[in-house]
Amino acid sequence: MKKIAVVYQSNYGSTERYARWLAEELGADCYNAAKVRPDVVQDVPIIAYGGGLYAGGINGVSFLTRRPDRFQGKTLVVFTVGLNPVRDAAASTAILEQNFPPAMRDQVRLFHLNGALDCGKLNLLHRMMMKGLHGVLAKKKVEELTENDRMILNAYEKPVDFTDRKALRPVVDALKELERAAEAR
Q: Do you know which PANTHER family this protein is assigned to (predicted)?
């Protein structure tokens, strides 16, 4: 029996790319959360879930949280994918609190990965959000712009892709460690 399953929800492809790379690296099965029933992964002790990060919300995370009893006793490794890197513990804690009920939080190990952006491929809502953000950032003085601000302004003008298979290494290492521990039991 496999110890790890990879499940993802992807709007524009970056999360799916990471999920497929992760499944390949681990020899795990990979499932699109929108197309698989949660009972398919019922017997797998470790679930790696990937979703895009939009305003602090993890895309499709309801796959895990809608019926948390289905995932009781499992280890959940969650990776988010977004244009802005999440680098501090406070931001990670806020994401965890926003997306998971208190009873599930101890089960979750959270990782963040950089994605891609092609404004021409965004849906209407995301295009409007990017236009608004671009407008706010474009009004800032050049010396007030952060590195992330400049990255977003550039991404608005032309597609950018920060996906990197090597960035998965901490996720892979954590999952392999969890797999070894599960096999030892």
A: PROTOPORPHYRINOGEN IX DEHYDROGENASE [MENAQUINONE], PROTOPORPHYRINOGEN IX DEHYDROGENASE [QUINONE]
| Residue whose structure tokens are 């948390």 | 68
Domain assignment of residue 152, given as a range: 117-161
CATH (domain of 37): 3.40.50.360
Of 178, 111, 117, which is closest to residue 151 (Cα–Cα)? 117
pTM of the model as a whole:
0.88
Nearest to 56 by CA among 19, 93, 26: 93
Tens digits of per-residue pLDDT, 9-56? 998 889 999 999 999 999 999 999 999 988 889 889 999 999 999 888
